[in-house]
Input
Amino acid sequence: MDTRFLNSFVTVVESGSIAGAARRLNLAPTTITQQMKTLEADIGCELLMRVGRTVKPTVVGARIVEQAREVLRGVRDLRSAASATALPAGPLLLGATPTALMGLLPTILRRWLSAYPETQIFIEPGTSATLLQRVMSGQLDAAILVHPTFPLDKTCVWQPLREEPLILLTPSEMKVHDVLHTAAREPFIQYDRNVVAGRMADEYLRRHDIQPRVRFELDGIEHIAQLVAEGFGVSLLPDWPVMGPPDNRTKRWTLPAPCPSRMVGLIWLRQSTRSPLARALYELTQSV
Output
């Protein structure tokens, strides 16, 4: 059985279509289709079926998809263990939130390329909740994400990288004498309350008996910052890192204490074969 075909099968199930899997794997859809026919002939059962415009696993396909993931993880672990160096062989499968991708990660990657030029890193963007789930399931080796509001499992290693207190973001020309009064008076762009920092911002305003004039609510700090820069309103956001010069169209204001903070860190599974790679990445962050 060709493990490449198993990988294509798992990717089709995750993507929900042959075309989506082909894009993720950089293969032609016809190649994926032929691989699936070969895999089904090898196993002796149909594994996929069409449902409208999507592709879903059959009963048998759903039954074996997790076992297929375990086989693929085993193959990756075997290849990582077969290393003549102090570290396991790569690649390191790393997840990162959008703000980490644009802020923390570029400097860390430069240091990685200098220290370990032969070891690849494959990067997957996503929300903190999604990345955490993928680390816990072994689909990612490590991730840079926001610590959730609940305790992490003891099978994980959590290393904090950056604390980001909430700030008030306004257009730079706006006159601010009282940040709380400004948050209450001006049109407000709400950071999505389904994410950790969005809930923090909402709870902080509630504690100060402020009902903001919410104009928009969305996820994505950079997108909110762009709307603030364009003059659509103000927002409470984490004090996130920015690559390059700051946007001079906006200004950050400190909030009155006690001000909540979100913690950004690196997480990986303690017993993973590639955990030494994750620890090596963390050690490089200490000088960033």
